[in-house]
Amino acid sequence: MAKPLSEYNRKRDFKITAEPAGSSPSKRKASALSFVIQKHDARNLHYDFRLELDGVLLSWAVPKGPSLDPSQKRLAVHVEDHPLSYGSFEGSIPAGQYGAGDVIVWDRGIWQPHDDPRKAYAAGKLKFTLIGEKLSGDWALVRTRLKGSGDKEQWLLIKENDQQARPAAEFDIVEAEPASVLSDAVVGKPKAKPKPRAATKAKAPKPSAALPDEFAPQLATLVDRAPEGDWRYEIKFDGYRIMARIRDGEVRLFTRNGHDWTERLPRQCKALQALKLKDSWLDGEVVSLNGDGLPDFQALQNAFDIGRSLDIVYYLFDAPFLNGRDQREDPVEERRAALKSALSGSRSKLLRFSEAFAASQRDIFESACDLALEGVIGKRAGSPYVSRRSDDWIKLKCRLRQEFVIVGYTRPQGSRSGFGALLLAVNDDTGLVYAGRVGTGFDQAALKNIYAQLTPLERKDSPLQKPLTSAQARGVHWVEPSLVGEVQFAEWTREGVVRQAAFVGLRTDKPASQIIHEQPRAAKSVKAPQTSKAGKAQATVKNVKITHPERIIDKHSGTQKQQLAQFYTDISEWILPFLRGRAVSLVRAPEGIEGEQFFQKHSERMAIPHIKQLDPALDPGHARLMEIDSVDALVGAVQMGTIEFHTWGATADKIETPDLFVLDLDPDPALPWKAMLEAAQLTLSVLDELGLQAFVKTSGGKGLHLIVPLARRDGWDTVKAFAKAIAQFMTRQLPERFTATSGPKNRVGKIFIDYLRNARGASTVAAYSVRARPGLPVSVPVSREELKGLRGAQQWTVANLHQRLQTLKDDPWAGYANRQKISKKMWDKLGAEPPG
């Protein structure tokens, strides 16, 4: 019943916008129906409410956003269907494009229609249940007879009167939860609530003014180049914006959206109190600094996660109110001078003044980008402080930049001459790999010059190692891969292509054969690649020679083979305790995670350097089981293409009596993360009631693993049956949430409690093992106290795990001991009988 996506595609130029192109509607694998609400700061701020049905996202624009108050019927304007891939889109739609402005994913999850959704949609009365990160409970979308602009239908979005409903006067979900559920980003102008002032012609503020209870910060406007005029530039910190209110000696700290973070920053509050300021509102940003003294956002998040405010520095850059004086109308340079003077007496290392730079904007910006900073903030000299986004404050963001091989071009459209966009590629071990396209950044002279060089290079076939899809290759003129162009862009996508690319210029100083996906240099402890007698590149990690060290294991993160080997070396003291003494199974991906993957349980004929082979009697009729008991064996496995390490639930010396069982909480991928956390808490409550201590780790995939250590007493059949009894008990108690039956069709809208990993010969990914997934996430132990703050099963990766480990105060699995026994009383509570 779904319409084609031609209307969606007609409105967009995908050479310019980063929005996903719409293809034919297609169904996903068995999964619940997804929903997404995107907050869209276009000409008017609104919320796009989207429901998956028949391979597309049915879409409505809700100007005021959803309300939890059943008495507030929110207008919902029906708009064109969107592709399913749009559900994860966040970014900025460029000026001049349809819907230009910033987009974030405000909420997402699954929806469950109460009746046949196709008939209800056609009849104009959809009733459904939402299970999202923010919204839940029962809702309705009802078509009205009101006429809107053009032929757009007018619907109403209504919250049903259930346990999740709340009066608007008590709670406004839109105001209380403004940020993205994917990135914590916020779009739109916050409501400023300064105390009204009487109109006056005098510019000077009153010497004394009542301090507002609430205060919204001034926000900067993103620009692509520095404007003319007198501007002051500061570093754009990669942290959290924090407003400090000081009244009657009490310090309170608030986020830009008004959330009170005072308790999360106790040392910063104490440092501000020591200044002994009178009534003030101070503006700044909290950051964590890395070893080079540069802001590190991941380190900041980790510091908050573990409550270590000592690692957080509060950079202050403005003072709209200071010592009882309203300074908002004062020039920015005067406000900042007063703030700097007020901070001069501070001895705390946690408070710092954000200095402005005297050099030119160009030099400051280039230096900031060279240091891998986020960018710079410019403030117009003489400007006042206003609690909204203002052109008096601007931000220039640094972008990624590197060379690419030009492999083709598309035809120009409209009045443009020469070509439309250039197709880009980089080299890897297999040949030229597609890296996206660039269609902006050219003036008329560049179009003419580059086109003249492309024409004699035309060829009939693609020079790429892997052919493009028919849609990607439509209208492309292929060329010999000899020209090199430099491009700046926002980021690499998971598919290994660039986003928001802009052309900088042709490069003649590098041959096309040397152009690769540029990566940070390897850690110092990894020896530089050398050439063996056979002519192959090698590196050495520990005592193991790594062949093809530069091979890209994961295009999303750009991680190379030798970097993965070094990662495992660096965390060896964390992972080896979970590998030693146990049979290990390996997930090997010799050509990287996008190539073929192998699951290997036995040593077979492959000689993995330094690996330990176990007694053949442990698994009769097969090649020997393997054990990783040293750093060299760990690295040796990586040399042979290993990414993941899985272990048995028993040690090799007592392989018939497991010393743990695992409950793998495996969700329908469409479920929101909040549903996973709730499921984990419910399952842990049941284990607590049984008297069993459990330990939690992220799976590095979609869910969580609950590990229950056991005394070595019962056999495999008993342990597996007990785990199954828990899964079945949870399913009986909450059938709408859990299933104990495997298979995607059985877990639609539910979480499968996978107990099958507890059979003899089965295995579970080890704690601190990398997963062979885009971004190389890691399975990481967490404490029960950390559980509610987890943001996802892939929160830690090879890129940021070391920051967590460096800042841990306590072992999250402290107290782990294999002494627990399964008792008859536990079986009785589950309503089950032990086997035999």
Describe this structure in words.
Residues 190-208 and 520-536 have low confidence and may be disordered. The chain is globular. It contains 16 helices and 45 strands. The protein starts with 5 loop residues before the first helix and ends in a 6-residue tail after the last helix. It folds into five domains: 6-176, no CATH class; 219-397, D-amino Acid Aminotransferase, Chain A, domain 1 (2-Layer Sandwich), CATH 3.30.470.30; 400-514, Nucleic acid-binding proteins (OB fold (Dihydrolipoamide Acetyltransferase, E2P), Beta Barrel), CATH 2.40.50.140; 530-645, DNA primase, PRIM domain, CATH 3.90.920.10; 660-830, DNA primase, PRIM domain, CATH 3.90.920.10. Helix 10 (561-570) runs antiparallel to helix 12 (631-639). Helix content is 17%, strand content 30%. With 836 residues, it is α+β, with helices and mostly antiparallel strands. It has an eight-stranded antiparallel barrel with strand order 1-2-3-4-9-8-7-6. Strands 20, 21, 22, 23, 24, 25 and 28 form a seven-stranded antiparallel sheet that branches.
